[in-house]
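Q: I'm writing up a methods section and want to include an example of the input and output format. Could you take the sequence below and give the corresponding predicted structure tokens, formatted cleanly so I can copy it straight into the document?
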Amino acid sequence: MLDRLVASECAGQYWKTWRRYEEHLVYENKHLGKKKNFMNWSSGTNFHSLSSQRNVQHSSGHITCLGSLKWAFNELKLLKIQLRPFDISFKKPKEMKMELLLGDIHSNLRLRGVYNPTSFQTPLVKRSNGELVTINRRVYSIRNANVLMSNIFTNSKTPPHLLVKAPLPPYIWGEWTSVRCEIRPMGLYLTRLFYFYSEDSTWIGEHKFYSDPFCTIPKFVVTAAGFFQTIGPSYQLGGSYDIDFHIEKASMTILDQRMTQDFHLPGVCGLDEWEVNVPKELSSTNGCLPLGIILPSVQMDIMKIEMSFKGALLLYLGQTDTDNMPDIAKNERPTAFQLPLVKCGEISTYSQELRDILYDDLDLNTGNIEKVHLVLMILSLVLVMR
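A: Here is the clean output for your methods example:
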């Protein structure tokens, strides 16, 4: 399959049959000069050896077949190195883990080659055991919290054999929250909190956005609610399930005074003017298009439940659209996951307040809109207090 893909999309090249563990030239730029180490992407092993050039015929100054392989190295356009503490102990030197964050990859395959990252992927952790690093005259000991066998990455041509976790059933009900401060494009950070009720398959979720990577400076909160339906096992991702989220109601609360000026668009995201710490119902304007919220709508998603090595239940939901403008007409599901949510505990089988919102057919053009505001405000306050 890989042979046919590259041969069809990389016209003018001659390919011998692809075999496992053989090297093939898929990118070369002769305008960069004779830099022999240019293709030395992996430690100690050349991705392309000079003797393999005879396998490819080309007459131009360079060849590139990365597009047909759906490879995008734009993630190297943005990077960040950070230290994160293991605990709050006062050991000297203080033990830290060092993380490398690379730029995010666009969720749309066709846009990956031209996308300039504005966010980060899940961080990589440096393999180290006691390396000392000095920053601002303070000494830190770099350690790796991951427990890996010492010989797991000995050969770059032999992928590591990891244990496959047993798939768990899609018992999604309960309370789930973010395990860490998450990253979104355009310099936004957030934490997520979800409640799923088993009796009537309703859900309510809170996305609280921040302007700093520590999730300490809040900007706004979006609270949404509706119904969910588990469709069945995913045919693309083993151990996963297709799930549909019906979004019926949503509200937004601005927590930063400067954002009230940015959203000074009456009739676009709810009625009336924005006020700090005052939830505004969004159903009256069919959502908030600048934030990618469409009401009512159905979000076709995927989900997977796993258990961590510490025994905690983890919930993975599908990767969000990079541009935050999902095209509902595509009827496509994500093929990758976000960071997991951890289960905090069990909840009641239903929420009477949520039933009042979803089942009561309110006339939004009458005085009942105050009732919607009141109920959404109560739900928002409950989520924030928890």
